[in-house]
Amino acid sequence: MLRTAPSRLLAAAFAVLLVFGPTTWAEEKPDAELTGVVKNAAGEELRDAKVEVMDSEGAVVAEAETDRKGEFEFELVAGAYQARFSAEGYTPFVGEVQLESEMKQELAVTLLDEATGRRNRAIEAYNAGAQAHRNKDFDTAMVKFKESVELEPTLAPPFLALADVHLQRGESAEAVAAIEAFLKLEPEDEQGKKLAFEAYRRAGDTEKAEAMAAEIGGEDMSKDLAVGIYNEGAVASQSGDYETALAKFRQAVEMDPSLAQANAGIAALLYNQEDLEGALAAAQKSISVDPKNQQALRIQFLVYDGIGDYEKGMPAWEAYRALDEAGAIQLLYTRADMEFQAGEIGAARVALNKVLEVQPDYPRAHYTLGLTYTGTDPAKAKEHLQKFIELAPEDPEVETAKEILSYL
């Protein structure tokens, strides 16, 4: 939080001004005194400062100008008043004062010059915006931060806060303008530089983004930022925005070619778009950096399977199985079942036999393999269908298997 300056003098001025009810001074004789002195922030007495005393309706009941010592004096009826203090070149000050019968109230008032007054109001607006930001009230925060920078353009923190809110609202051009204004005031601020990089990146200014990344931390910073960009792509992918996800993954790889997961993400998206050549290239780039990247190994197998290159496909599947055996077996069975449904009987049998080689008691592999033999080898069909019933008697396909066996 910024602090309003000069806080000690302001506190002294406000401490003596209290709120009370109305008075009927005009109907009574003065029985109380209001005196005091008006100074500036440097402690100098202000001559010819105007002092106005107003009743509860706002009507002026007494007024005067301070003398050469900055002093003033009024005789008033006991009651509640407002006192307004003003002087040329200074911010006016208004406060409440209560006078009691036979009482002499002394005030010490400090008037701030207009520049200081504006700065204090700017600080107050910034603090209000910061509180709204903490409360997730970004609309109010935006209004207060804008008010702050308009009041005092030399105050740096509001520009930084304004840039952050603009980014959260997706307003990249406005964020760039705000963060550049901040960096003119605080050119070495690390937080500002990081926010500037993000603003440039989102605004599509690659040249400035890369220059800022190099200034912040060179290669190491680029790696950290690449991870952030990859994460944005992952979120986009999860929400179904695959175009944005692909763009983010590619941007992350450009920033950090060693980010294996970004290449794996590219591979997965391209595979889903049936760009098998591009998917394979991206998967292999990922594997070259991280030989144990499961997603990349999985995509590599799926591509080889998709193009019918079983000579390369099975070693690729074995590499994937070494890291995730259950996932690899399920994947191979799924591909085999799809090939069977598509009439690719030979390919299906190769894959199903591989599944059973690794996991002999995989029920559905026996079932599908039995189906592949029903028209060519009844003995093998019976063997696998009976094994399926034995292993999974509650499987929904058991009745189908029994019906087929009755005809074999």
SSE blueprint and pairings:
Layout: H1 7-15, E1 32-40, E2 50-54, E3 60-65, E4 71-76, E5 79-86, E6 93-99, E7 104-111, H2 114-134, H3 138-151, H4 156-168, H5 172-185, H6 190-203, H7 206-238, H8 242-255, H9 260-272, H10 276-289, H11 294-306, H12 310-321, H13 325-341, H14 345-358, H15 363-373, H16 378-391, H17 398-407
Overview of the structural elements:
It is a single chain. 61% of the residues lie in helices and 12% in strands. The chain is built from 17 helices and seven strands. The longest helix is centred in the middle third of the chain and has 33 residues, at 206-238. With 408 residues, the chain is of the alpha+beta class. Strands 3-2-5-6 form a four-stranded antiparallel sheet, with no helix packed on it. α6 (190-203) crosses α7 and α9 packs parallel to α11 (294-306).
Q: Based on DSSP secondary structure assignment, what is the total number of beta strands?
A: 7
What general outline do the C-alpha atoms trace?
A: elongated
**Which stretches are poorly predicted, pLDDT < 50 over at least 5 residues?**
1-26
Helicity level: 55-70%
% residues in beta strands? 5-15%
Oligomer: single chain
Radius of gyration: 39 Å
If you average the pLDDT, what whole number results?
Answer: 86
